[in-house]
Each structure stands twice: as C-alpha cells, then as structure tokens.
Amino acid sequence: MTEARYIDIKRFAVHDGPGIRTTLFLKGCSLRCIWCHNPESRFPQPELAIHYPKCTCCGECAKVCFCHKIINGVHEFDRQACKACGQCTQTCPSGALELFGRTITVNEAAAKLLEDRIFYGNGGGITLSGGEPLLHSGFCTELLKKMQDEGIHGAVDTCGNVPWSAFERVLPYTDLFLYDFKCADAEKHRRLTGCGNELILENLKKLDATRKNIEIRMMLAPEQNMAPDDLQAAGKFLAPFKNISAIRLLAYHSLAHSKFRAVGHPDTLPDVPSPDAETLDRAAEILRSCGVKKVVNSLN
Amino acid sequence: MIFGTYAQDEEYLWKKFRAPQFDPCTGIDQDTAAKEIMRFAELDAPAPIVKARAFEFLAENLQIEVDPHDFFPAFACWKRRPCPMSPLLAELRKRIPLQQGELWGLLNQSGASNIWIDFDHSVPEWDEVFRLGFPGLLRNAMEWREKHRAAGTLDVAKEAYFEGIRITYGAMLRMLKRFIERAQGHDNARCHFVAASLQRLHDGPPQNFFDALQAIYLYFMFSEHIDHLQVRSLGNLDWLLTPFYDRDLKDDTFTDAQMREMFDHFFMQWGSIDNYWGQPVYLGGTRADGSTQVNHLTHFILEEAAKLHLPTPKIQIKIAANTPDEFIDKVTALIRDQNQSIVLVGEEGIRHIMTSHGYTEEDARTCLIRGCYEFGSRGRVHANTTGVGHLNMLKPFELIFNNGIDKQTRKPVGVPVPPLNALNSFDEFYRLYIQELDWIIEANIKVVNDFEAHLASINPANVFSPTIPNSLRTGRDAFDDGCDYNNSSLLTTGFGSAIDALSVIEELVYKKGEISLEKMAAALNANWEGYEELHRKILTFRKRYGNGIPEVDRFAQMLSRTLGNRINGRPNSRGGVWESSVHCAKQFIHQGAKTGATPDGRFAGEEMSKNASPAMGADVNGVTALLRSALAIDAASFPGDFPLDVMMHPSSVKGADGLAAWRQLLRVYFAGNGVAIHFNIFDAAKLKEAQKNPEKYSGLQIRVCGWNVRFTEMAKSEQDMYIRRAESIIE
Ligand code: SF4
Ligand code: SF4
Ligand code: SF4
Questions:
Q1: Distance A37 CA to ligand 1 centre (A)
Q2: pTM attached to this predicted model
Q3: CB neighbours (10 Å) of residue B237?
Q4: Beta carbons within 8 Å of B119's beta carbon, 6+ residues apart
Q5: Ligand 2 centre from A93 Cα, in Å?
Q6: Mean pLDDT across chain B, nearest whole number?
Q7: Atom 5 (ligand 2): residue with closest C-alpha?
Q8: From CA A108, how far away is CA B564, in angstroms rounded?
Q9: Number of helices and strands (H, E) in chain B?
Q10: Domains (range + CATH), chain A
C-alpha cells in the first residue's frame, strides 16, 4: 500500500480552497523559503518537535529516553541522537512533544479525509498540502482518485518546484491547484527560497495550458517580495494566464518562531511587520494595473 | 424634544433598575410594601385571591414614576431578588402538605440533583395580549367565567381562578391610571406622549409601534416584577412588531429613526435590569407557506441590538433551510464581532423532536423559543414546561467508588454498591452506573410530582393565565395544568464528562487492564493526591466525547436514549409528561462543586461539562469533529432541549470565506437535527489581555451557557477557565 509521511490533518480548513475542507499536510519540501510557516514540513524524514512553552520540565520524557535530560530545571534535548521513534510523545502529560512525519497509507488518509464529508457540501472538499505534496505524487494520485470516486472536490496546494511528470500524474484527479507564486525574478527567488524559479514558472505555464482551475497564492512580506518592482514583474508574468480563477494575496506574519525552535532549525524568519489590509490593497492595485484580474485580498 | 435624546437619556436608563429614586409622595417603597402584604396571608380565601389582593395592594401603593428621560414607566419594585411577593408566597407554601421533603433535601444537599420550584418559564401568548390588550384580556376572562357559570362548571376552584384574574387585571388597569396621572403632572412633552399611549392601553389593545413596545414592557413588569412569574420571552419580536411598524411608517405616525430610538429605549430596560440569565427574545422562523419569516424588522432589531451591544436581551434566531444566506452571514458576522448575545436554533431539529413526541408539524413551525434556548408549542396549542431537577451524571461515579455513600451528606444515596472486585466486566460496571442514574431519576420525579400537584396554590398565575385560551376554557391555572401541554423537564449536568469517565473505565480498566477499580477508587477518594502519575495518564487520554470518535460517541447515543426512554412521557402530577433535557444552566458549576473526583480526571469540586458539550478542553479535533459527536445523538431523546456550545478561533472564520464556511457548518448541523448552538469567537491572547487590562475590554462578552456575561466581571478563576479553553482550540 502506498504511504507517505505527513505532519498534520486539519479539519474545518476554510482558507485552503473553497468551502469547508480537510487538509492533509505531507512532509518534505524542495524549497527552503526564509519565511516558511511550516518548518516542520520541510525535511522528508520524521522529526520530534518540542513545544517549549508547554513543557513543565517534569522529566517524564527523560525516564523513557536518554535524548531528553532535565538539567538544572531546564529541558535539554540531544537532537543528533534522536531516532524520531515517537515513544516519548506518549509520556508527556503537557502535550509538549509531537512527532512530525508519521506514515499514513492511502486508505488511512482517505478514511480520515472522508470523516468530515457531511460538511463539504457542494462547495468544499479536501486539499493536499505540505511541505510539497507533489513530492509524493504517487500517493497523491491514488488518494485524489479515491476522492474523485467519492465525488469529493480535490485541491493540491503546491509550490510548483517539482518535475512536470508529478503534475501529469495528479492532473486527471485534481479539481483545483493552489499554486504559490513567490517572486518573478529568478535570482531573488533563489535568495528567498534557496532555488531558482524557472521550473516553477514553466510548470505554471504548462498547467495553464491544461485548462485546469488554478488559484495563485502570493504571500507578501515587506522588504522581501512586495516592492513595486516585484509586484509589477509578477503582474506582467501572470496577466496572460487564462485559467487563473483568483490571485489571493496573503500577509506574511512572523508567528512561526516557536515552530523553528520546536524542530531545532535555524530561524530564518525575516523580522518585518505583517502587512495590513490597506498595504495588501495597494499591492493588489499594482497587480491590477499590470492587467491581472481577480486579485483577492485575504485580509478583507 | 421627544426624539434624538438617547445619548442624554442613557445615564437615567442605566440607573433605572440599579439605583432608582422615587418621589415618596407617589407611594411606598418595595421593602415596606413586601411587609405590608404579609397581612394578606391571614385572609381566609383561596390562594389565587390571596395573591391577587396582594397584587392589588402593590399596584395601588407602590411608588411610581414616568421620567422625562424614558419612554417607559418606572415601578418601585425594580429589585428582583426578592420580589415583593416572595415572602408572602413563601408563607403560603408552608401550608402545603409535602410528602417528599426529606428526599428533596437529600437530592439537593448531595448534589445528585438540584430541584427548586420553577417560577421561571412562563411566556404569555403575545398574540392574545396584542389582540385584546389589558382590558380585553379581563373582559374575555369574565366572559369565560359566565360561560362556565352557565354550563354549571364553575366550581369553587374555578371561581377562585377567575376572581384572581378579575382582581389582578382590575388592579393593573388602575395602576395604568396612576401612571397616566403621574405623567400628565410633568410639564414635559415626552411624558405626555407616554401618557397618551398608556391611556390607549388602558382602553384597549395597542394601536401603534410604541404602544406595542409599551404593552410588552408593562406585561413583563406586571408578571415578573409584581406577580412573581418570570416572562421567559418577549416573543417573536420581528413578527409581532411588523404590522405596527409598516402601518406607522405608511401613515406617517412615526419615522424609521423614531421607531429605532423607541426600540433602543425598550431594549435598554433589560440592559439596565441586567440579570445574569438574560432576557430572551426570538426572531425569524417560517411562514405557513414555507417561506422565511426573516424580514425588514428582523434586520432592524439585529441592527439596533448590535449598536447597543448589550449582554441582554439575548436574541435567539430561528434558522431553517429557507433562511437566506445573506441573513445568516449578517448574524454570524455579528457574533464574530463579539455580539455573543445571539444564539441560533434550528427549525428542522425542533420539528424532528416535536413531531417525535406527538406534536404536529404546524405546532413545531409556530413554536416559541424561551429561556436559554428551549422550545415549546404556542399559537394554537400551548405548552408550559417547568425546569425541575438537574440530573447529575457524575454523581453515580462518586457513589460507585465510595461504597454508595455520598460525600457531601455522608449518607447512602442510590442503589447498594457491591464490592468493586465483583464488577468483573465493563458490562457490569455500566449496568451499575445506569442503576444509579435510575435511582436519581426516580427520586427526582417523586419529589417534583409531590410539589407540582400544588402548583396553582404555590404561585397562582393570575397575570399569565388569561393569555392562554385553554386556561380560560378549562378554568385552570396556565402555569399548573391549564395549558394544552403541562410538562416538566428534567435537566442534565455533566453529560460529556460522564461519557469521558465511562470511556476511561472501559479502556484503561477493562480493555487494557492498566488500572484496577480499587486503585481508581483510592485515587478518586484521595482527589488524585499521591496518584499524580495515574492522573497524568488519564489527562492525556484522548478517547473523549467531542472528537467525532464513533467508539466514544456510542456512549452519547446510549446515554441519551436511556435518559429519553426513562424520562420522556412519564406522567407528571399536572396532567402532563416529563421531558428529558441535556441543558444544564448554571448547575455544571454548582453540582460540580458537590461532586467528588471522577474517572475522567476531574478534581473534586471542579465544574463538569455543560449542555450537550464536551468537558472544557476535551475536544481537540476541531469544530467539525465536535459537531459530528453531537450529531451522533438523536435529538429526539431530548424534547426538553438540546443545546451545544462551540468556541472557535477568530482566524477560522475571518473574511467572507470564513463566514461562508461557518454558514455551511450551521446548515449541516441543522440539517442533521442539531437544535440550539451558540458560539464564542475569541483567542486566548485577547482574553489574557482583557484579564490584565479590564478597562479596555469592558465590552467583551462571553456566552456562558444560556446567557452572557462581561468577561471583565467574571471571577479570576472563571476567566482562567475560559483562557485555558481558548488555548486548547485549534486555529
Ligand atoms: S514552499 Fe512552503 S513549505 Fe516549502 S519551504 Fe517554502 S514555505 Fe515552507
Ligand atoms: S515530559 Fe513533556 S513536560 Fe515533561 S519534561 Fe518532557 S517535554 Fe517537558
Ligand atoms: S522520539 Fe524516540 S528517540 Fe527521539 S527523543 Fe523521543 S523516544 Fe527518544
């Protein structure tokens, strides 16, 4: 049975496509965006997260595994030695330990996603997200097909940085692509995400040609990707597309610090303020002035 | 100037029911009056007449005012606890021969139940009040008296019933006269405006929008503040007011702005009264042709309520498949903006429940919403359900693990408990649990049936009865056995907590064998002290109610059906039946305080779950999972009421997408026969901020159960409870 590693299943996900949805977040991503809101989803392998604000330093975890130690009332963790087996998560009374990257089979995932089907109605459905879900394109294809057989709307939330073949596999079973657009300039893209955007832009063009429904998601962060130049370049690139149903502007916020700490990754979040609704309105205006239609400000 | 003065009037209005001052030359004050009417206890007359004479004395002698700052008269009986009639009624009650006093005491002291005589749930037939007016209600009652006389059915009890109405309504009309004279004595245009309206109401039914508001207010004051019977709904207000509003606008009697200002004054009366349990009104509904009853007045009322932003009146809104999307979005946007006084009730679920218990679809369509969110038939047939008793669903655990001895009273309560090691299977444990519940249900019914047989003598409903056609037809008190349906409701506390406790026992004791019953007993009796490890293990136990886990939710189904089968349809002593309800009002705190530690991990004295909701923080799978758990229950098990509380994070309902998803959530819940649902939308950070800086958050309201409170006025421990809860919700 095909399986994949996942980090979370979110119900009543109302911002991952239309209506009430359940979103499955798969683990592993091919980008390293400095502003990543889900740092726990980037690496493909399982990772133990320690939610330090919840930890009372009770020492229960230290009883089951030497990776945890309470030294002078402080919780020390040896991440190098941790095999991410997840055993210690059972012992923590405060819910401070969480294992990201448990495996799930297609059938198990389908059962989970179907639990909320009474709520989907005509408008809602399921979304596969991540990380980058299309790194698990086999899994996604099987799962989306199952959903399609059940008459459930399926969306894929992708950064686009995967081989086109991955898109091709899921295409027949996907109703909507939520496609991240970070920045039009390749060099800047490399600086912001660790990777150029050539493949991403190429895939977007190919996807548009398939006439699938696409919603572009632009997460805007001050001083990073929302200068007038950035927006104009983005607008020019996006204007000719035919099958984009909306360009949704999302506001960056720096609330993920604790998540970086929890999984022990170097915190790369830019220290810039979250743009407000008016700032996004202005960005929307610039995009519109380049001929882009259907720009949606998610803060309104 | 009569209009455009709300801002100047507001200060007076706030004081009106908190620290009012009366001109002593208008009469006597409330406390003196309460003492004076004790002499009527000596009267050698049936209870309705004794009470009516006391009412008459109060109406004729209490201080009054018609203030230039107000559209509505002031009564010196503004204080509600005690109401001036209370001591007299307490005296009359002593004369009633009760058989079950001892059992009543045991139930209440142990916290196994909590029973008091219900004077809290009357709703007049507002259509009759509007059709006949005060003089017409009196005339109509007297015509019925003559019909009974002619038919030879006017026995001593009926004669007293009608005489009580005659004296009471006569006194009401004389009190109106007093108000009119007082108003005319003021050299003020508004007072004269009010006097003219009062004169119309003295002479007949309300003639315009203002008279209609005045009639509702006056009825409320006569019944609730003088006659000691709460008015638990101001009616289907949009629907009641529509004909007046439309006519007045067309005739140029009033402008829309003028009617809005009168309405603001009207709502502010209850804002000023400010009972913690709140004053209900309901809106919306379905017309006979199946279309929605939501109209311009529904919007008008919602808009004014949002502007005033009061914790009370609380607004119950009937939602059906025909309710327009835009309207639902307007309502939920208001809730999102912290108008927590709004609660939503599903007409489909109500129809399912009512028709399951023999009411017609038409009875369900025209039903009223009263109290916190209860429903009941009105229109062609009337139901007068009392809320009598609160079944403590956690008490059986305390009894089972403490050898059948209640910890509060140190007395045996419930059925005899065998040694724990004799409970060899979960099946046997469950059987015993149900036997304990049964014992409490039977005791509760016995106690209530005993005193409710005398309800008409305990508190004759002289103001209420003539508004109910069947009461006049039968010559019987409308709050006793004079409605078409005279039902008694047994409420429930700790429903969700009990499910969790059963789930813990099934899984950890019987399936996994990780804890013995003896160890559980020791831990519970030590209130977990010395058993911290076990306690921690139980706290991390996830198979709890509210998470959409079928294996756990089956307990919700089993228990709801069991309660329904044991309670529903049992005869009460008023010719009606018992109804099971999963509503608990404030008892989840009070009975929690009287209940020892329980296997779900609860400490002794802690609150338990309320309504059909999970224990605080037990639901960790989000709102859809919570609703799936609740929908696993057949709502028809709970004809008394089936309310659910939901807390959501603002981010999950932000924007138009959020509202659309929320609407879909409601549509699904109501289509699945969910009944009452209320929401708290807030995040923990904001609550913490409000705890620190109360001055900045005086408007922040929390929906507690069937009512609202200002967050900043809650005790710190209660605030902390809500903060903990908010922290556990998923964004
Ligand atoms: S594409 Fe998304 S998940 Fe991947 S690194 Fe960027 S923000 Fe994180
Ligand atoms: S068991 Fe949990 S709370 Fe205790 S020290 Fe470990 S992580 Fe912290
Ligand atoms: S996940 Fe496994 S290896 Fe890592 S700390 Fe926990 S118990 Fe130890």
A1: 7
A2: 0.92
A3: 25
A4: B228, B229, B230, B459, B479
A5: 7
A6: 94
A7: A57
A8: 36
A9: 28, 14
A10: 3-45+101-297 (3.20.20.70), 50-100 (3.30.70.20)
